[in-house]
Design brief:
single chain, 2 helices, eight-stranded antiparallel β-barrel, disordered N terminus, Lipocalin, 168 residues, globular
Length: 168
């Protein structure tokens, strides 16, 4: 995938975010929002995602282990950060009633195999195309991702060349 495409998508995600770090001495709440079942049915977290984990850009690959369980692996673009996650998708009752269904919220625990570990939560949007959440790693950071195939399909922004400058 083109780096400019990935960068443009991640800048858009970052601009839509908010400061989650809290001020000096201020407690930050990592409580997850309420789970919701979309009218389209159960949300699906599986697939390859590109984005950031606590300001570190990389790829998150998620595979299903059971109806409401997932295994995920994050690898930073520079190869320096790597960790795995155990995600549990929360079940909720649809707004119109009925049986509890896997919702748009997953809670997770992560570890890096070198003593680093923590937890967090992540929401998936109605279109199953973007993830947004929080990760606790000794501090608190944003988790923002888009599906890799959607990121690859987004055209790169035009490159402005100065007079006399060659493309490439």
């Amino acid at each position: 995938m083109f780096r400019p495409v990935r960068a443009a998508l991640l800048v858009a995600l970052a601009a839509a975010g908010c400061d989650r770090s809290g001020g000096a001495g201020e407690a930050v709440d990592i409580a997850a929002p309420a789970a919701e079942v979309y009218p389209e049915g159960a949300s699906d977290f599986t697939g390859e995602w590109v984005g950031e984990s606590a300001g570190v850009f990389g790829t998150l690959k998620v595979r299903r282990l059971a109806v409401d369980r997932y295994y995920a692996q994050f690898n930073s673009d520079d190869g320096l950060v790597r960790f795995v996650c155990n995600l549990r998708q929360v079940r909720a009752t649809p707004g119109e009633g009925g049986e509890m269904t896997p919702a748009n919220l997953a809670l997770f625990e992560w570890q890096d195999g070198r003593g680093g570990r923590g937890n967090g939560w992540v929401l998936i949007n109605r279109e199953d195309s973007a993830l947004s959440g929080e990760i606790r790693y000794g501090g608190l950071g944003a988790w923002d991702f888009v599906r890799a195939e959607a990121a690859a399909a987004t055209p790169a922004p035009p490159v402005e060349l100065e007079v006399g400058q060659a493309a490439g």
